[in-house]
Structures are given as structure tokens and as C-alpha cells.
Specification:
alpha/beta; Dihydrodipicolinate Reductase, domain 2; nine-stranded mixed β-sheet; six-stranded parallel β-sheet; 12 helices; 15 strands; globular
Amino acid sequence: MKGSLIVCALLLSCLFCRAQHPLKVGIAGLTHDHVHNVMNQYKRGEVIIAGIAEADQQLIARYKKAYNLPDSLFFESLPALLKHTTPDAVLAYNSIIEHLGVVETCAPKGISVMVEKPLATTLKDAERIAALARQFHIQVLTNYETTWYNTNQEVKGMVTGISSIGDIRRMVVHDGHQGPKEIGCSADFLKWLTDPVKNGGGAIVDFGCYGANLMTWLMDGKTPLAVTAVTRHIKPAVYPKVDDDATILLEYPGATGIIEASWNWPFNIKDLEVFGTTGYLHALNDTILMGRKKDVTEEIKVHPAVYRDNLSYLADVLSGKLKPENDLSSLSNNLIVVKILEAALRSAREGKRIVL
């Protein structure tokens, strides 16, 4: 009996250790400034970097120095990286147009991928990514900063099932900042972020995707009936090739979504407003949630979300503990996001409402 208890204890101990063991990831590209997030996770021991695929020597030198990375981690390409090591997943930190190439390389090897938002620059690329994911039985997930906001998760809980504010009638999302150049984004990041092909557009894509992602989630994975968008070029001297301000209108049966995306805000903002039949919720940021019913306005207590970062979420998806269906990082949600963005770009270009 005593021996059995010891074996059980050891098994439980092993299971606990395995659950706590950090993921081993490959990194595709270093041109996306969000890569600093995973580098800091690496410094804190929250992730193991199996290898980094990057050909630009100045970028390699910069990251080696900043994060004390050994030469052995670097490979000139993703195929070269995957020839020498098998990570649990690959995280893409390159231009949006390169996401398809990352999935084309990883999928046949059965390696799942998490990209930075949005999933793709075109619906054609997004659908090819989805086809590869199905064919090779891998996960392809999209990472948004706002996914890990406790307030957004609280809003979702309050409008699901027995809602505290009734059926959703209107959603408004503001996302943006003073501009990527103005806030000090790296030259390597700006080179493709302000390119209409490599990024797919300007602010309409860079920040419009957040609202499309949140609204698709709140609408339980429904595609809007129609999309109308207006873009502006307020700073053509700074951003000559792409828009720097966009407003996108999404039409749903019984509800309307308004996405305001800009590189012209006086400050950084990522908020969410939801108007129901009996009340109103406003997630001002990741920590403050206000609610109003009739004439009563109050700050709502926000509970900690189950997942506070992309790595813990990714680990549970890879282990099978969590099945991403219509959650914010899911492939199904982000296919609709790309469909919305493509329609918005067409609407702005042609000056008309696009029926989906």
C-alpha cells in the first residue's frame, strides 16, 4: 500500500512538472516589434526558444546583444531551423504577408503556428492557411494584445447567456495611437507595417483587426451582413503609401458595430463599448470596466481571466485541454476578421457598402 502511494505521488509529481514545463518554440522572423514580448518571456524563463529564423544580420546582432542570445539559436531560414530542431510550435514575428509561408513550412511537419494579428493580408491567403491546418491537423492561432484583457473577458461573460444588459444592439471599438513612427517603432517594423502589400493596408488593417476580432467573438462567430468603410490620409508626408485613419461599419441582424482605427490618436487607446437593450458596458482598458443602467453608473469588479498571455493559452490548446472554437485566437474567428478587413478595404477604395 505504501509503495502504491509513493508511485501515485511520483506520477502526480511528474504530471505537475510536465504541466509547468515551458513550451519550446521556434521564432519565424524578428521584424515585428511584438517579438520583444516573447524575448522578455524567455528572459523570465516562461518559454524555451528552440531557434530563431532570421536572415538579416543587423537584426540578429541587435537581438543577440539585447537579450544575450547565443549564436546557436539562429538559422538563416525557417526550413533550416526545422531541419535541426522540432519545437512545440512556431511563433511568427514577420510581416503579415509572410504568415502563409510560415504555415506552408510548418504544416507538413505537423507543427502548429501562432501568428501576430491579423491572420493574413487577403482572404485567399487566409483560406489557404485554413486548408493547410485542416489537411495536416495543426492549430493556427492569432495573437492579439486585447485577447488577454481581463475587462474584455468580463464583458463577454456579462453578455453571454443570461445577460446583464440584454441583447447587444451596438458595439464600438477604438484602437490606435499617435502613429507607429511617432511612438518609436523600429525601422525594420515600419518598413513593412507601412507597406500596402506586406501589411495589407495601414491603420485599417493594423488596428481595424482588433474591432473585427472582438465583434466576431461577441456575435458568436457570425459574419456581418455588410461592411462599409471610410479611410483618411491625414499624414501623407509620414505615411505616403497607406491610410492612417479608418472607420468601419459592420451590420448584423439587430446590431451594429463601429470600428475606429487610427494612427492619429493623441494617446494609445484600446477600448470596447457594448450597448444592450437594458444597459451599457465600457471596457476602458485592460483593468477598468464601467457599467450603466438607466441613471446609475458604476465601476464593475473585474475577475482575473483564465488566460493572461498567449503562451499559457497556446500550451493548453496544444495539449488538447482547450479547443479553440470561436474564441479570440481561433482560426474560425480570424477567417471572418480577414473577410471583414478585405471588404473594408474594398469599400473604402470603391466608396460603397459591401454586402457579404
